[in-house]
Structures are given as C-alpha cells and as structure tokens.
DNA sequence: TGAAAGGTTCGAAATAATTCGAACAATGGA
DNA sequence: TCCATTGTTCGAATTATTTCGAACCTTTCA
C-alpha cells in the first residue's frame, strides 16, 4: 500500500519570524491562512482569488506556507488536509497570528 | 536655501498589511525597526549587521521601510531622522508591531 | 565660497521568487 | 484492474528584489 508522501515541516523551535512574515506577506498566501482559521480544509476547498491558477502554482503557494511553518499539510486520502499551525505560532510568536489575521487589509500589496 | 527633499510617505489609511509584513520580513530591515523602538535615530546611528554595506544599499533598505509605512524619514539638518510609525501602525494593525518587535528570532530567514 | 558630511537617486548586474506545463505518484471507485 | 482524482515535483522562463557604484543634492563649517 504505502501512502502519500509525508512532506517536511519545520519544528516549532525552528520557526523563523522573518520567514513567517515573508510567507504571510503575499496577499494570496495570507488569504489562504485566513481560510484556515476556522479549522482544517482540504486543498480543493482552499480558494484563490483567481480560480484559474494552475495547480502547480497553488501547490507552490502552499509549500511556502508549509516550509515557513504557517500551515501543516497532511495526506488525507487522495486529498491533502491543510491546517493552521496556530499553537506552534502562538507559542513561538505570541500575538502575531491574531494580529495578522484580525487586521483588515483593503489595499493589498500586489 | 530650499531644503532637503521631503520623501513621500503613505498615509495611515493607505497602509497595506502585506506590504508591512514584507518590509519586516527581511532580517536587516527588522533589525532597523527594532533599533527605533526607543525613539528616533539619525540614519548614521542605525546600524546594519554588516558595517561595510554601501550607503546606497542602506538607503534602499530604508526606502522599503518608508514606502511600507513602517518608518518615517525626515530631514534633520544634513542628516535624516528615522522614527517608527508606531501610532499609525498600532491604529491600523493593532497588536502587530508589538508582536513582531517582542518576538525573538534566533533563526533568521537568510 | 569651497569642500566635507550625510543621504538620495539612477541604472545595470546579480539574485531570488514566482509561474506554469509536463511528468510523476498515491488513492479510491467502477 | 483501470483510470479519474488530487495533488507534488522538476525545469525553464518570467518577473521582482537586492546590491552597489556613480552622480547628484543639501547642509554645515572653516
């Protein structure tokens, strides 16, 4: 049987502030993080502002979030379950996630 | 006479979350912001981790912080006075600056 | 006035990040 | 078993960011 590949995730102690800030500094990635505040979603349920973006691009956005430690990406059948690493982020950078997620951003970067 | 150029600064209402996050996502720029928490400094008093970086590079780092609205850059004699735009940032993105500045970051991005 | 101090801007080169098609892999059903 | 679903990864092209020297601008002070 074997199973879907386990992707690498940084440990809590390895999280880097600047790397997390960078991951969240893209409007599309920030929007993804926001979609996960109410609980995990399968990748297909996470929407981008442009629905026509190829899956490889979407996968790359997820990778930036995952390697920064913002999001966890686990196999879930043939899908992928995305979840916010809220506990790790709160422990490592208290108040940061709340501030970022609760901020309103009428004029995004790009 | 005339006077030193007044550089453009975004208004409070124009501040963009992702742009601010991007500005702070670089270790050198984050370090500069941290040097300003206790009050304004002249540019020459803001130190980079590498003291040999050319002034044009340093000026560019400041520009990214300024155009993001993180820092104010005003003429001060022949020098430039840098200050954190704490009030604007706090008003626009409550808790964000505190979270970023108080976080410890043992493993910087680059 | 002349020149040094302290910075900004411009342009070009080097680096880094993003985008996306194609190839590949595992899962779940028919 | 076969094949559609749901992704990841690789490589190449595009685009964005960074770096830095050179030119330039004010201010200060001798």
TrEMBL record, chains A, B:
<dbReference type="GO" id="GO:0003700">
    <property type="term" value="F:DNA-binding transcription factor activity"/>
</dbReference>
<feature type="domain" description="HTH arsR-type">
    <location>
        <begin position="9"/>
        <end position="104"/>
    </location>
</feature>
<dbReference type="InterPro" id="IPR001845">
    <property type="entry name" value="HTH_ArsR_DNA-bd_dom"/>
</dbReference>
<dbReference type="InterPro" id="IPR036390">
    <property type="entry name" value="WH_DNA-bd_sf"/>
</dbReference>
<dbReference type="InterPro" id="IPR011991">
    <property type="entry name" value="ArsR-like_HTH"/>
</dbReference>
<protein>
    <submittedName>
        <fullName>Transcriptional regulator</fullName>
    </submittedName>
</protein>
<dbReference type="InterPro" id="IPR036388">
    <property type="entry name" value="WH-like_DNA-bd_sf"/>
</dbReference>
């Amino acid at each position: 049987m074997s199973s879907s590949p386990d992707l690498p995730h940084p440990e809590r102690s390895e999280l880097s502030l600047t790397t997390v800030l960078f991951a969240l500094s893209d409007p599309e990635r920030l929007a993804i993080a926001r979609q996960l505040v109410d609980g995990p979603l399968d990748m297909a349920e996470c929407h981008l502002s442009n629905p026509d973006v190829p899956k490889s691009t979407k996968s790359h956005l997820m990778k930036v979030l995952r390697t920064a430690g913002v999001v966890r990406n686990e196999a879930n059948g043939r899908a992928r379950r995305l979840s916010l690493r809220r506990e790790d982020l709160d422990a490592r950078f208290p108040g940061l996630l709340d501030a970022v997620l609760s901020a309103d951003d009428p004029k995004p970067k790009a």
